[in-house]
Amino acid sequence: MKLGILGGTSLAKSLGKKYIDAGLSVVFGVRTDFNIDEAEWKVLNRFYDRLCPYQSAIIQSEIVLICCENEHLAQVCQELKEVDLEDKIIIDCTNGDYDKKLSTGNTQLIRRSAPKAIIFKAFNNLGLDYPNSDVLGIVKETYFCGDSNFEKIRIKRLIELIGFKAIDAGKMKNATLLEAFYHLSREITWNKKEESNYHFKLISV
Q1: What is the DSSP code string of 130-182?
Q2: Which of 31, 32, 88, 164 has the fewest CB atoms within 10 Å distance of its CB?
Q3: Who contacts 129 (Cβ-Cβ below 8 Å, separation ≥6)?
Q4: What is the mean pLDDT of residues 85-100?
């Protein structure tokens, strides 16, 4: 199984390295003007030859994780439209811009661009700047949702493979709730004027 991780973000790099260390084949899809001067990206490209354009990464991969910045999502979605996505799994790891109406802008855009793909949302609670937002390494869980009950077990195992507890948040309609969870943590961080993010942990009794 090959994973394609789209985006030149800290989250993309971190998840990719975790999956490489776990023994999976990973390819990173980045925009054509992406600057790979950062040392860790140079190492990934030099020793693994894993950086390629968005569309190439999508074509090569069975499962695609979208970890790009919001300003580059439109380009990613355009590339999705130009590829046969039947039977591919796409995981939306992004958060749309804060909206009090709980709009699912990013997720809906991805779904419209990939109607034949199987869509899930996961890892969005980490944020695109992860692990910088969790310098103490306290975040040990992520929430995921999707409409395919058959593939949910597979996504759960994929999440757990890199050490996170996978919490099933139900159907894709709950993607708005997962994003609200993330935005609330950001609002608390901003109001506290602290650099480290506030993260939530669900407790079952």
Answers
A1: TTGGGTT----EEEEEES-HHHHHHHHHHHHHTTPEEEE--SGGGHHHHHHHH
A2: 32
A3: 9, 10, 11
A4: 88
Q: How far is 133 from 126, CA to CA, in rounded Å?
A: 8
Q: How confident is the model at residue 1 (pLDDT cuts 50, 70, 90)?
A: confident
The model's pTM is 0.91
